Amino acid sequence: MSDKPIQSVEKREPASVEYIPYGAQDKIKLSVGIVQNLVAVKTKSGKTCSDRDAVKFLAMCQAKRMNPFEGDCFLIGYDAKDGPAFALVTAHQTYLKRAELHPEFDGLRSGVIVRCADGTLKDLEGDFYEEDQQVVGGWATVLFKNRKQPMQKRLRLSRFQKPFGVWQEDPAGMICKCAEADALRSSFPTMLGGLYLREEVEVPSVSVVKPDFGPSKQLFNGVTDAPAIQPQPEASSPDPEAKPEGQGFNPVKTIRSLCKLAKLKEADVLAKLAEDGTTDGSAATLEDLALSPNGSDILTALAESWPDFVARLKE
Fold first, then answer.
1. Are 60 and 193 members of one domain?
2. pTM, rounded to two decimals
3. Which end of the chain lies in a sparser environment, N or C, as judged by fewer CB atoms within 10 Å?
4. Model confidence pLDDT, tens digit, residues 20-73
5. Looking at the structure, do residues 253 and 305 belong to the same domain, yes or no?
6. Cα–Cα distances in Å, from 151 out to 154, 188, 222, 270?
7. 2 within domain boundaries
């Protein structure tokens, strides 16, 4: 029998990061659980991303300071031959937002390359073209304030066009976006290097919807208005935020809104819940609590009894 001491295996907590997104003021938190349950678009077979895919996604988000909750980027799942696969794609708005903030950026022009009836090629600005013209490519030019030469890119349509989705309905608009992304990425590699649009990568057609917080939900006979999350597609519906009363009810955003109205800190609310024995005190944020067992039910009950809870908290 070996005399080597048995080494204890340290239990690792799920990876998480906190950072301030580019151009924002407030810090956000991303963890493996949040990515898997709230961000990743599941495959058609219902599979979510692995821990490895989630860690790669949050590492890229932190490195490039992107905010997936604002629609800066997506983790799209699809069923491949070898099983579920996930691709990180960047929203077109991310390129435009970052270019707008760069001190050297002085404008962007883009359009389509068409073949006319006589066989000649012509550059058109924008994605409008005549019926007798055939779109064969796209172009984009980035202008700079101090650099002598602009950045120009010209792309062939056949290189990017896909046999599904919007590419079949609006190839001119799609190739324009690809040309703009290529030109901006080459112009500002520090800010945009390594980021690609969904239109630029081989990802099957998947419905991707940016979280959109719609009409408010009235609480306590209209005394308080708290925002409610818009229902998401089934593929990306978050598990921890079950919808108990009205469709679209989001307990996390409801409690956060109520805290703001009552001028309470989120940490004080979580501390009071732990003091009452409602939680074990391990949750550092409302999202952490929502992802814990029965966390969504605890937040829902808290919203329903909010006036009494506030009164006890301020005693």
1. yes
2. 0.58
3. N
4. 998 888 999 999 999 998 899 888 888 999 999 999 999 999 999 999 988 899
5. yes
6. 10, 10, 55, 51
7. no
